[in-house]
């Protein structure tokens, strides 16, 4: 199986999954970045209510705000992650070790490293996508990019890179590593044949694990990325880095704030992971003539 096959299959699958689940991500971003009104009430109170409010006030198209940078980010990042994963996994496992004999911990570590390396390259697209989703008025990729560049320079596009790397390390470790391990257990244990049902079961389980483990760093990432280009604003210029954001959120909002937007994040994670791996395995099957 060539790296090109994995990259193309990963990119195509990511495009399908991202497009289908972006409205849920929109709701999650609004929930994570909102501040209470003067009377203490919140505009967005849940996943479905958030989707409804955005569609009613800004139009249904607003649910897909940031679709272009989102697709660029996901297709490039995911394709690269899946190209790197087997190479890293086999290097960590050592020569001559059969795939089914590779330990769970090595699969998880390999998935995390593949994700962390890949997202460093794609962080600018995440910053632009997050700001487009937070904006209640119509914005453009170029307008936002010019604003970030003018206010903070090139480094502004790497706002939130620390929690983003942490999130992608954890997320990929859970998604790729757990999916690889769960599928091996399911197929090797003769619970299900290697096909759509085993892929569905393995990907859904991996998505749940990923959501639980990576929500706190996703909240930190979203807060930091949303303030890029707004460093002089009282609302946005509050965090100097990942640790500062963590401490201030804990102090001002309590530990549960690190799980703000968990329902849409978990719903999107599980849905995204299932769609992604079903499409990925099918495209890879067509490209190579066999399931992996």
| CATH-defined topology | Mitochondrial carrier fold
Shape: globular
Topology order in helix (H) and strand (E) letters: HHHHHHHHH
Instruction: State the low-pLDDT regions, or none.
Output: none
Rg, rounded, reads: 19 Å
Total number of distinct structural domains:
1
Biggest β-sheet strands, sense, barrel: none
Instruction: Give the count of helical stretches.
Output: 9
**Binned strand content:** under 5%
- Overall mean pLDDT score? 84
Tell me what the structure shows.
The protein has 292 residues and is mostly helical. The protein has a single domain, classed as Mitochondrial carrier domain (Mitochondrial carrier fold). Helices cover 72% and strands 0% of the residues. The chain is built from nine helices and no strands. The N and C termini lie close together (9 Å). The mean pLDDT is 84.
């Amino acid at each position: 199986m060539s790296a090109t096959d994995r990259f193309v299959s990963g990119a195509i699958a990511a495009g399908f999954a991202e497009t289908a689940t972006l409205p849920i991500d929109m709701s999650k971003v609004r929930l994570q970045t909102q501040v209470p009104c003067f009377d203490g009430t919140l505009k967005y109170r849940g996943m479905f209510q958030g989707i409804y409010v955005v569609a009613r006030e800004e139009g249904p198209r607003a649910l897909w705000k940031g679709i272009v940078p989102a697709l660029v980010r996901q297709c490039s990042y995911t394709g690269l992650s899946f190209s790197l994963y087997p190479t890293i996994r086999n290097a960590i496992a050592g020569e001559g070790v059969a795939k089914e004999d590779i330990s769970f911990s090595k699969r998880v570590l390999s998935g995390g490293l593949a994700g962390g390396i890949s997202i460093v390259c794609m962080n600018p697209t995440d910053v632009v996508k997050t700001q487009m989703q937070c904006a209640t008025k119509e914005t453009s990729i170029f307008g936002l990019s010019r604003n970030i560049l003018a206010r903070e320079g090139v480094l502004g596009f790497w706002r939130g890179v620390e929690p983003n790397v942490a999130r992608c390390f954890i997320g990929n470790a859970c998604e790729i590593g757990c999916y690889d391990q769960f599928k091996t257990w399911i197929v090797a244990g003769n619970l299900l044949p290697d096909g759509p049902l085993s892929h569905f079961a393995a990907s859904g389980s991996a998505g749940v694990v990923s959501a639980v483990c990576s929500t706190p760093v996703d909240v930190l990432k979203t807060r930091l990325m949303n303030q890029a280009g707004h460093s002089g604003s009282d609302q946005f210029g509050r965090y100097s880095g990942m640790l500062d954001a963590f401490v201030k959120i804990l102090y001002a909002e309590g530990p549960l704030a690190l799980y703000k937007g968990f329902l849409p994040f978990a719903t999107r994670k599980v849905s995204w992971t299932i769609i992604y791996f079903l499409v990925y395995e099918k495209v890879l099957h067509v490209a190579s003539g066999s399931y992996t």
